[in-house]
């Protein structure tokens, strides 16, 4: 049995396993960072912790959407640390098991779809479930860690 949080990106519904979540946070403006890696949209401070924000829509090749009162940060946990993604809204949590869980079609697998863990059926809808650990490469994580260290040093010196 898998518990999946569903969320919206540019009008499409996606999911992530609850076990991969660190939290759902209200939107606050993010800070831009000079010389940030291309994968990074900026950083946000949540409970005194600096969390990198990636542009998940860039990975999914989705158009941007306006920030609204429904915009949230999905804070995801990986072995490399926390990362936040902007979601246009949170839908619900549902459970899937057995026939409701399908492997991602092998014909669609590529470097551009590595982030997909599996597809889950939620009623009449199919939801692409994202694996947070596969959103960023080791090189991207390395660049993010270096950038966060610099930001933390700058904040300490202010």
Verbal overview:
There is one protein chain. The protein is built from two helices and eleven strands, in the order E-E-E-E-E-H-E-E-E-E-E-E-H. The protein has helices spanning about 55-60, 140-155, and strands at about 1-10, 10-15, 20-25, 40-45, 50-55, 70-80, 80-85, 90-95, 100, 115-120, 125-130. Strands 8-1-2-11-10-9 form a six-stranded mixed β-sheet, with no helix packed on it. The longest helix has 20 residues, at about 140-155. The termini are far apart. The model has no long low-confidence stretch (mean pLDDT about 90).
State the total count of DSSP E strands.
11
Mean pLDDT: 88
Enumerate how many helices there are, as a single number: 2
What is the end-to-end distance? 48 Å
The stretches of 5 or more residues where confidence is low (pLDDT under 50) are none
Given helix and strand content, the structural type is alpha+beta
Morphology call: globular
The spatial strand order of the largest sheet comes to 8-1-2-11-10-9
Present the secondary structure layout.
Elements: E1 2-9, E2 12-17, E3 21-26, E4 40-46, E5 49-54, H1 56-60, E6 72-78, E7 81-87, E8 89-96, E9 101-102, E10 116-122, E11 125-130, H2 138-157
Parallel strand pairs: 2-11, 5-7
Antiparallel strand pairs: 1-2, 1-8, 3-6, 4-5, 6-7, 9-10, 10-11
